[in-house]
Amino acid sequence: MTGERSARLDGQVAVVTGGASGIGRACCHALHREGAVVIVADLQRQRVETVVEEMTAATADNTPLGFACDVRSEADMAAMAVLAADRCGRLDILVHCAGILRAPGSPPKFLHQMSVEEYAAVIDVNLKGTFLANRAVVPQMMRQGSGHIINFSSTSGLKGRAFDSVYCASKFGVVGLSEALAEEVRSAGIRVHVVMPDAVDTPIWNQNGPVKAPKNSLPPERVADLVTWLACLPDDTVLDHLVIRPFTARRRKRKKRKS
Questions:
Q1: Domain assignment present for 250
Q2: What are the mean pLDDT values of the chain's consecutive 10-residue runs (259 residues total)?
Q3: Domain span including residue 98
Q4: Which domain CATH number covers 161?
Q5: Which of 10, 37, 98, 235 is most exposed, with the fewest beta carbons within 10 Å of its own?
Q6: What is the pLDDT of residue 259?
Q7: How far apart are CA 133 and CA 244, in angstroms?
Q8: Catalytic residues
Q9: Which residues are CB-contacts of 74 (< 8 A; sequence separation ≥ 6)?
Q10: How distant, in Å, are the alpha carbons of 4, 15, 112, 191 from that of 20?
């Protein structure tokens, strides 16, 4: 991450859930460099404070805030929106990155081997968390007459993958929820995008047991670049089908011509 600061988002307030690691952390830094006041929202207070300190050290022009919270909690998500409105006077951008691959300590397994508790753990964070976070910020954005919600699904929300059935179901759900919400709030001046990354080198792979991140996985900063670009789009512009994946150039061997 570079320390260069731009100003395309000066005066805007951005909340990033899951902001203390992986894609969320990269988004916090990228939005902060563009001039936004960033509220880092994540489960572990110490990690939240670390990211806030990193951004403050980079530039003191737009002081970031931290908020320890659980996206599964209705009260926490409501308090997150209130914090933005009370401390900053507005809430312009929600980047909802918080998510898990599977229940803590649960290895990849067949659907018929999965417990109801393992199912609920993933759905509660990934889908219910998206619902609660989005629902919490919409009223403030409606009062402003503007706002931008960027939710995170996955390419697993477009095609099912073996041993990830519930994760796939949750990410399919995020796509549907985001598309429906986009239609509901369009007339209020609120845009909703859903980003669908393929392989990205983040700590979520630690939840995948023996399966490691592919060697050509994208760094989270590339996804943050896309999020920043979306956040800086003109107000009259939206994009659909936002899949981001690694590009691997393949060299083709040239056949020698016979003389």
A1: no
A2: 69 97 96 96 96 88 93 98 96 97 90 96 98 98 98 95 95 98 98 95 68 77 96 94 82 51
A3: 13-244
A4: 3.40.50.720
A5: 235
A6: 44
A7: 23
A8: 167
A9: 132
A10: 21, 12, 33, 25
